[in-house]
Design brief:
- With about 350 residues, the protein is mainly beta.
- The chain folds into two domains: about 45 residues, no CATH class; about 280 residues, Methylamine Dehydrogenase, Chain H.
- A six-stranded antiparallel β-sheet has the order 1-2-25-24-23-22, with no helix packed on it. The chain has a four-stranded antiparallel β-sheet with strand order 5-4-3-26, with no helix packed on it. The chain has a four-stranded antiparallel β-sheet with strand order 6-7-8-9, with no helix packed on it.
- Helix 1 packs across helix 2.
Amino acid sequence: MTPLLPVHYPSPRLFLSAQTSPSANSSAKIMSPKKRPPFRTQFARRAGTALALLATALAHAEQKGTAQRLLVANTGKVAIVAADGSIEREVKSAGLHDAALLANGNLLYQSSWTKITELNPAGQVVWEYDSAQANGNQGKPLEVHAFQRLENGLTMISESGIGRLIEVDRAGTLRREITLTRDKPSKHSDTRLVRRTPSGTYLVAHEADGKVREYSLEGKVIWEYAVPLFGKERAKGHGPEAFGNSLFSAIRIQNGNTLIGTGNGHSILEVNPKGEIVWKIEQHDLPGITLAWVTRVERLPNGNTRFGNCHAGPNMPFSIEVNSAKQVVWTYSDFERFGNSTVAVDVVPALRAK
């Protein structure tokens, strides 16, 4: 197989502009002409700073494989990263486990552990919903870890602690409510990723329970799968040293099987409707890569599988694509800018030519 090569890096222009263009609200001091150093000295200092920043970022930021435009989210911010590595858009968050770039170009993300916010490309808020303040939740302990804009325009929100999935319209009106089955109720760990299936049901990753449950729209559990421990003992932590079955995600793929990101199980499982594992990737299956907290999983149209690798440390990629033979065809890492808690990396459509 042809070796994977780095294909893009952060743009030096990004760092130069950051160094030379302080905003009106910044703490940067503008020197008076009398005290300003000679232009050549200024340029040398600025260029040196920019090159130093770039060199630091180059040590960690790269895609290996075909360069792609990405949505990247950690627990404190969301960014659209261009194929050349520059940041197109970035927004801060006070707590995040889910985000999506919508077909209209708007960004749907968590601005806190309870609030969902939609921003247009100009950065204007066009819709918000705060689960802590709406539809009977005032004063109740809860967190949101998953949401999804549905084809009918409603928004699904998973409310951990309350133990329910809801669908709301643009006015925030409750249009559907599904009560969740929970073995270990927890405002932080009732759920992680929740996604609508092609047949209209919901697949819920119940982190605390270590189970995937599929719910009908009437709220009935119609399928359940307990993520196995494979005979291993549980171990505390979030990195490669940890172990358990605190899964992060589950999606229904085209062949009817379910693809699961097992969280601190360090693995990806493909399970058929009978609950049999038909394909998997384990912690040390990929040469030179160690899996830690496996987050989102996706089966691509070409049959490849892309998944997240969170809490893995600065020398590991936090998004990986493999083919069915478990050969790595693409990775992405940018520890310098996104750190060790990157929970989502999605490929998003390229910008249209203006």
